[in-house]
Amino acid sequence: MSMMCDVIVVGAGPGGSMAARTAAAAGLKVVMLETRQEIGDPVRCAEGVGKRALCQMVKPEPEWIAAEVKGAKIYSPDGTCIVMSEDKGGAEVGYVLERKVFDRGLAMEAARAGAKVMVKTRALGLLRKDGVPVGVSAMRIGEPLQIEAPLIIGADGVESKVGRWAGIDTTLKLKDIESCAQFLASDPSVDDQYCEFFLGNSIAPAGYVWSFPKGEKLANVGLGIMGTKSKPGEATRLLKQFMKSRFPNGKVLEMVVGGDPCSGPIESATADGVMLVGDAARQTDPFTGGGILTAMQAGIIAGDVAAKALQAGNVRREGLKEYEDRWREEIGVHLARSFEFKEFFVKLTDKDLNQLLGSLKREDMTKMDLRAMLRVLFRLNPKLLWELKHLVV
Amino acid sequence: MLTVNRYKCCYCGACVGVCPTCALELVETWLEVSADCRECGICTKICPVGALEVKA
Ligand SMILES: Cc1cc2nc3c(=O)[nH]c(=O)nc-3n(C[C@H](O)[C@H](O)[C@H](O)COP(=O)(O)OP(=O)(O)OC[C@H]3O[C@@H](n4cnc5c(N)ncnc54)[C@H](O)[C@@H]3O)c2cc1C
Ligand code: SF4
Ligand code: SF4
């Protein structure tokens, strides 16, 4: 079978759906392919998002949200706890989503805007004419399918192939990906009000443990460790160990594993006829691992630029430069900064972490955002943080 | 040879993202290994559940 359209979006995660919605709303004929038979399932996410940033892009339906939190608690290896409030606590907390419902909701918005959504349809490669991509070959419920389109948006997640097919090397080095494991656990000692973060090289080397509450003493308890510190099965082993010490009576209702890119901005997210968004473009925040909002943001920009480029009749790489410029400005600058923090953070010993968080004990953190907190940290620990001096202005 | 323990694999795609030769493909719940695999073992390290192994 074959068909034609203006834009093919590969992958129906938050990045793909926002790209498809935006492009379809601009009047383009959009086809969005999703290899899975059920959008959003299985989940590979801790489901935490900043409330304000989310609401700027979509109007959340009540059923997308499992819980709302007051803020974040950060625990040092020696148990010191720092509390940050939600409106200041940075981008990662606010809502804890129900991603199976959320991802499907966003795909529904794309469909309502006019995009054709095709599930159980896997992109297999790019169709080319004179070397230029002119569409995608796919497999739809076991049958071959060819779709012609001048533009392809690769929103195919951590396992992305679209970039590599187009000549963009998105292979992640082990130091640029976190190996993650998570349980959805029910335990009486879950904090229903706060997202909790636990630091320590013995519990999560070059990463952290999280507990994001989903209401009624249920939480996503998980951890990520840097690929270079990982070995086969290590993330799951460490998670079981953490559960034993912190939530010994935890009842596990779901298991999630995944790889979270933390490479910082890649050199190029465009090629002739191709734009990459979200995890496919490695647009996750390297420090926190959060990538839902950045994927959505990039999707919106890509959808918008798709309409402009098609109208201008130039979908070659030069014609897509606006996407490259805008994602770098709106997301990339932050990712680069965050990457430097990560590179520094992963070198800290437990003693360093104790010193840093311990120094904040007497400070009032409730009114501080991450930047302000960093300034205070720097004032109190100038020697330890000297390398980050240029970031703390 | 790279072996996939399909009873362990949770089809998360992390291994696909790190393979330098693009030898892995996630087909929903089924991880395929192509002839491009050089048995470098990088993917085995990242697997959160330990489903991959390079066997002699
Ligand atoms: C354990 C873990 C915890 C995380 N926690 C958080 C968090 O709390 N907050 C946060 O903001 N982020 C978090 N992230 C990151 C977040 O999940 C991702 O950044 C986000 O899902 C990226 O969205 P996306 O649309 O780019 O890709 P995805 O959501 O991964 O969607 C990609 C889609 O493309 C499909 N696809 C792939 N290949 C093909 C193909 N060939 N053809 C058709 N379809 C294809 C896939 O099936 C998938 O549905 C976490 C990640 C992990 C692993
Ligand atoms: S990293 Fe492990 S669990 Fe994930 S898809 Fe690969 S083999 Fe399966
Ligand atoms: S062993 Fe190396 S080449 Fe083979 S699939 Fe794994 S990462 Fe790729």
Helices, strands, pairings?
The complex is a heterodimer of chains A (393) and B (56).
Chain A: E1 2-4, E2 7-10, H1 14-25, E3 30-33, E4 48-50, H2 51-57, E5 65-68, E6 71-75, E7 81-85, E8 94-97, H3 99-112, E9 116-118, E10 121-129, E11 132-140, E12 143-148, E13 151-154, H4 162-165, E14 177-186, E15 194-198, E16 208-215, E17 218-226, H5 234-246, E18 251-261, E19 270-271, E20 274-276, H6 292-312, H7 321-345, H8 350-359, H9 370-380
Parallel strand pairs in A: 1-12, 2-3, 2-13, 3-9, 6-15, 13-20
Antiparallel strand pairs in A: 4-8, 5-8, 6-7, 10-11, 11-12, 14-17, 14-18, 15-16, 16-17, 19-20
Chain B: E1 2-4, H1 14-18, E2 24-27, E3 30-33, H2 42-46, E4 52-54
Antiparallel strand pairs in B: 1-4, 2-3
The structure holds flavin-adenine dinucleotide and iron/sulfur cluster (SF4) (2 copies).
Residues 2, 19, 21, 23-24, 33, 37-43, 54 of chain B line the site of one iron/sulfur cluster.
What would you note in describing this structure?
The complex is a heterodimer of chains A (393) and B (56). Chain A is an alpha/beta fold and 393 residues long. Helix content of chain A is 30%, strand content 28%. Chain A contains nine helices and 20 strands. In chain A, the strands form four sheets. Chain A has a seven-stranded mixed β-sheet with strand order 7-6-15-16-17-14-18, covered by helices on one side. Chain A has a six-stranded mixed β-sheet with strand order 9-3-2-13-20-19. In chain A, helix 1 (14-25) runs parallel beside helix 3, helix 1 (14-25) packs parallel to helix 6 (292-312) and helix 6 packs antiparallel against helix 7. Chain B has a single domain (2-54), classed as 2-Layer Sandwich (Alpha-Beta Plaits). Helix content of chain B is 18%, strand content 25%. Chain B is globular and about 25 Å long. The model of chain B has no long low-confidence stretch (mean pLDDT 97). The chains are: A alpha/beta (393), B alpha+beta (56). At the A-B interface, strand 14, helix 5 and strand 18 of A face helix 1, strand 2 and helix 2 of B. Bound molecules: flavin-adenine dinucleotide and iron/sulfur cluster (2 copies).
